[in-house]
Write a structure and sequence with these properties.
Layout lengths: L14 E5 L7 E7 L2 E10 L13 E8 L11 H4 L4 H15 L11 E10 L4 H22 L12 E9 L2 E4 L3 H5 L1 E10 L4 E7 L7 H26 L3 H5 L6 E4 L4 H10 L6 E3 L18 H16 L2 E11 L5 E2 L13 H11 L9 E11 L5 E12 L15 E3 L4 E2 L5 H7 L1 H17 L2
Parallel strand pairs: 4-5, 10-11, 10-12
Antiparallel strand pairs: 1-2, 2-3, 3-5, 6-7, 6-8, 8-9, 12-13, 12-14, 14-15, 15-16, 16-17
The structure holds 2'-deoxyinosine 5'-triphosphate (Y43) and magnesium ion.
Length: about 450
């Protein structure tokens, strides 16, 4: 039987998160999940409940309410009736718990963040939409506190979102609308973080008990839904999304290379870098063998940096580099290190290159060094950049400086090989100098908070 709106069973409704929806609150979001619409605001008050006074710790409180005409029949205002009903009480506590679960309250100082979730139109899943929207509003409010320097550290540890799942007509489905919810045999709300952990699961066998298999199936759907929601939250938060988590990557990096020459050059080029540079030896991974089977410099650089980031849980920076010689179809390219075979030495590789280029005149010996630098952060975020340096392949080896193909590479600007040029100059103009400059730029964007 087709679902209302022809949705697949593991598909959520159209979602739209609009930030800065109203003007005064520090965080204000309209979240729309299909026909369910909730305004979520986060307001910051510079005081805490009595039990937290002089503790240095803050609090997050949530209130939830439905407008009279958010439902099919008008619902009397709780304020007119003079008391809030049990359902409202339960929901606002749930929202408060969900948001508190991902915020370090001791890092927001003695402040209360008031979360207000007002349902303007209800079509099922209002409590879960409230949580998903409230997180974005709170993130915005906290980000403002941070930007105004009222707090020193970002207190948000994770994103959090929520979605409903259930069994309707014997079918497990995700994100129930009102009609589906009303006829559900089993009904469940799944609240999760961006790291795939659970914050709360509320499941009820309304019309019949459910089995462990049902539970597993429903949790799987909940996971799918929350992954989509967290992507949407990220999208809505745009460029501040990365700053929100305020992950502390520490102040050290590891250079994922087994090549001592590269390590030396990278160290020299990054001498003003704010991070302590470790070698593979420093992290007890000297000589680690990583299969570089990528088709591009970028792919290989990422392969190396990923392995080392994963093993060390540190920011890992790798270089994959090589020479592209135009006359021989940009060879040796990614095969530069193993041009003359798996165990080839630099000298073997140079000899092979000179042989292949034997009859090529100077005017056709153009080439470039390429360096791809990949950076992989402990949380899996990554990027890769490329730097190049143009030159010409010499007829014979010249100079003893550098390594690899240096003594065969006449760099354009100096009309000398890198073998003849001091390291200080090479490190100012080389492919690696260029790639690392781009890397620093990109790096600072990622960690700037
Ligand atoms: O500035 C350079 N001056 C001269 N030669 C260079 C340069 N930069 C890369 N090359 C050559 C050396 C090696 O034949 C290949 C890099 O291969 P590539 O796999 O990236 O490095 P690798 O195996 O020596 O060390 P690792 O993978 O552990 O970083 O290109
Ligand atoms: Mg290599």
């Amino acid at each position: 039987m087709a679902r209302i709106g022809n949705r697949k069973n593991d598909e959520i409704r159209d979602i739209k998160i609009t930030r800065n929806y109203t003007r005064y609150a520090e965080g204000s979001v309209l979240i729309e999940m299909g026909e369910t619409k909730v305004i979520c605001t986060a307001s910051i008050e510079d005081k805490v409940p009595p039990f937290l006074r002089n503790s240095g710790t803050g609090w997050i409180n949530a209130e939830y309410s439905m407008l009279p005409r958010s439902t099919h029949q008008r619902k009397i205002r709780e304020s007119s009736r003079g008391k809030i009903d049990g359902r409202t009480q339960e929901i606002q506590r749930l929202i408060g718990r969900a948001i508190r679960s991902v915020v370090s309250l001791d890092k927001i100082g003695e402040r209360t963040i008031w979360v207000d979730c007002d349902v303007i139109q209800a079509d099922g899943g209002t409590r879960t939409a409230s949580i998903t929207g409230a997180f974005v509003a709170v993130a915005d409010a906290i980000h403002k506190l941070y930007k105004s320097k009222a707090i020193k550290e970002m207190p948000i540890r994770n994103f959090v979102s929520a979605i409903s799942v259930g069994i309707v007509n014997k079918t497990h489905m995700l994100d129930l609308c009102y009609e589906e919810d009303s006829s559900a045999q089993v009904d469940m709300n799944v609240i999760m973080t961006d790291s795939g952990e659970f914050v709360e699961v509320q499941g009820t066998g309304e019309e019949r008990p459910f089995s462990r298999d049902d539970l597993n199936e429903l949790l799987k759907l909940g996971e799918i839904g929350n992954q989509v929601l967290i992507k949407e939250q990220r999208k809505a938060l745009g460029e501040i999304a990365d700053e929100i988590l305020g992950v502390d990557y520490g102040n050290e990096v590891v250079i994922a290379t087994n090549n001592a020459h590269k390590l030396e050059e990278i160290g020299a080029i990054l001498k003003d870098f704010d991070y302590k540079i470790n070698s593979l030896k420093d992290v007890d991974l000297a000589g680690i063998e990583i299969v570089e089977d990528g088709k591009t410099f970028e792919e290989n650089a990422l392969i190396k940096a990923r392995v080392i980031a994963q093993k060390t849980n540190m920011i890992s920076i790798s270089d994959d580099s090589g020479l592209e010689v135009d006359a021989i179809g940009k060879k040796p390219g990614v095969y530069s290190a193993r041009f003359a075979g798996e165990d080839a030495t630099d000298a073997d590789n140079r000899e092979k290159l000179l042989k292949m280029m034997k009859n090529v005149p100077m005017s056709q010996r153009s080439a470039r060094f390429v360096s791809a630098i990949a950076v992989v952060f402990p949380d899996g975020k990554e990027f890769v950049v490329r730097g190049t340096c143009e030159g010409t392949i010499a007829m014979e080896e010249k100079g003893d400086n550098g390594f690899g193909y240096d003594c065969l590479f006449i760099v354009d600007k100096y009309n000398k090989t890198f073998g003849e040029i001091p390291a200080s100059i090479k490190n100012a103009i080389s492919h690696r100098a260029n790639s690392l400059k781009l890397m620093k730029n990109e790096f600072n964007k990622r960690i700037s908070r």
